[in-house]
């Protein structure tokens, strides 16, 4: 008797079952809290292995996790490349393998790119809900790639901003962004113009040197720093890192992978999961930075969500 082959759930199907990133919020909040609870939380997740591909300026990330609360076991394989010559190839590509945790059988292979875009934006939204100032009116997005779109979608669904601004290194892509999304967006000619007076800022670029300077940031603003996931890459300058209260998804990952944290020497105040558990305060009246690197357990709960929805319809 042969075993059942794994199912393949491609990007369109993932998108169909995960049409709004906000569907993931309860599962992600629980996963972040469980992760920060240590062994008691039942999340088994090493810091990811990132294998450089120096000849081509690329990286392969291997991201396994088990969540006892969800009884879900996955590993994501994600590649990310700097300076791709062929602009039709996305800079980040990912696949998630979902296993039966009781016996190790591979149950499903899922497109991981939609999952990565949506779970990352949903985690930034969780941080923003906790850390943004009261009466936040202006949202600023730096970058106009995949993450910029997914962040725009969930931020405008969950929060009411009077103004949304975008800046991108290549202005035409910011203009295209403004014409594609569902609401009005002001395209700015410089990052400083976009950031000045903003209450909530998202940095979602492939920059390797700071694009956001502490000088420009309104006191009390909240920053979601999504890019710069290598120990020698930066998006935020030292002034911003040192003069903000710093929240991370994982302390171990931040101290291993984040150039903004390692090179600035900034002190980590809390993991987001500690705030969700209530063991650390949120401090929304301060200038806050959430340094996001992306955690495997986020992919685990997202893949389980998609697989369960797919199974229910099949
Ligand atoms: N924290 C997390 O969980 C995750 C983080 N990420 C990170 O988020 C960031 C964005 O990813 P994604 O949207 O998928 O990438 P995309 O390739 O879709 O977009 C990249 C964006 O970065 C801009 N950019 C590239 N180089 C520079 C530079 N030197 N200075 C300023 N802007 C630059 C590009 O501008 P232009 O149009 O001019 O090329 C573009 O707007 C990446 O750093 C990625 O690694 C991704 C997944 C998960
Ligand atoms: O969590 C993730 O998938 C990634 N973080 C940085 C690059 C990809």
UniProtKB/TrEMBL annotation:
Q: Which domain of life is it from?
A: Eukaryota
Catalytic activity reads: L-proline + NADP(+) = 1-pyrroline-2-carboxylate + NADPH + H(+); L-pipecolate + NADP(+) = Delta(1)-piperideine-2-carboxylate + NADPH + H(+); L-proline + NAD(+) = 1-pyrroline-2-carboxylate + NADH + H(+); Delta(2)-thiazoline-2-carboxylate + NADPH + 2 H(+) = L-thiazolidine-2-carboxylate + NADP(+)
Q: Give the residue range of the signal peptide.
A: none
- The question of whether Cell cycle is a record keyword is answered with no
Pfam families assigned to the protein according to its UniProt record, in alphabetical order: OCD_Mu_crystall (PF02423)
Which UniProt keywords are present, listed alphabetically?
A: Cytoplasm, NAD, NADP, Oxidoreductase
- The primary site where this protein sits is cytoplasm
Q: Which GO terms describe its molecular function?
A: pyrroline-2-carboxylate reductase activity; thiomorpholine-carboxylate dehydrogenase activity; thyroid hormone binding
Keyword Ribosomal protein applies:
no
Q: Which GO terms describe its cellular component?
A: cytoplasm
The first-level EC class reads oxidoreductase
Q: Where in the cell is it found?
A: Cytoplasm
**Which Gene Ontology BP terms does the record give?**
thyroid hormone metabolic process
Could you say which EC number(s) this protein's record lists? 1.5.1.1, 1.5.1.25
Q: Which family does it belong to?
A: Belongs to the ornithine cyclodeaminase/mu-crystallin family.
Relate the assembly described in the record: Homodimer. Binds the thyroid hormone triiodothyronine (T3); T3 binding inhibits enzymatic activity.
Name-wise, this protein is Ketimine reductase mu-crystallin
Organism of this sequence: Taeniopygia guttata (Zebra finch)
Q: Which gene holds the coding sequence for this protein?
A: CRYM
């Amino acid at each position: 008797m042969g075993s059942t082959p794994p199912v393949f759930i491609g990007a369109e199907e993932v998108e169909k079952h995960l049409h709004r990133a906000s569907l993931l919020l309860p599962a992600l909040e629980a996963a972040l809290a469980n992760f920060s609870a240590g062994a008691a939380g039942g999340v088994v997740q090493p810091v990811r292995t990132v294998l450089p591909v120096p000849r081509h300026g690329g990286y392969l990330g291997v991201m396994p996790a088990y969540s006892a609360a969800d009884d879900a076991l996955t590993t994501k394989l994600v590649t990310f490349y700097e300076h791709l010559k062929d602009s039709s190839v996305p800079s980040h590509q990912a696949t998630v393998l979902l296993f039966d945790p009781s016996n190790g059988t591979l149950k499903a292979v899922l497109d991981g790119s939609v999952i990565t875009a949506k779970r990352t934006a949903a985690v930034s939204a969780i941080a923003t809900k906790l850390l943004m100032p009261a009466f936040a009116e202006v949202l600023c997005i730096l970058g106009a790639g995949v993450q910029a779109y997914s962040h725009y979608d969930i931020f405008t669904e969950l929060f009411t901003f009077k103004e949304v601004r975008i800046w991108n290194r290549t202005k035409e892509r910011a203009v295209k962004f403004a014409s594609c999304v569902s609401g009005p967006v002001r395209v700015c000619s410089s990052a400083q113009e976009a950031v000045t007076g903003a209450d909530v800022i998202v940095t979602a670029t492939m920059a390797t040197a700071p694009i956001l300077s502490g000088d420009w940031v309104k006191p009390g603003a909240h920053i979601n720093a999504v890019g710069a996931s290598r120990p020698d890459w930066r998006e935020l300058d030292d002034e911003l890192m040192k003069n903000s209260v710093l929240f991370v998804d994982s302390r171990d990952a931040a101290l291993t992978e984040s150039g903004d944290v390692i090179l600035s020497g900034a002190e980590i105040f809390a993991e987001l999961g500690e705030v969700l558990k209530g063991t650390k305060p949120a401090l929304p009246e301060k200038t806050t930075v959430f340094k996001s690197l992306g955690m495997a357990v986020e992919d685990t709960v997202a893949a389980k969500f998609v697989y369960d929805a797919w199974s229910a319809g099949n």
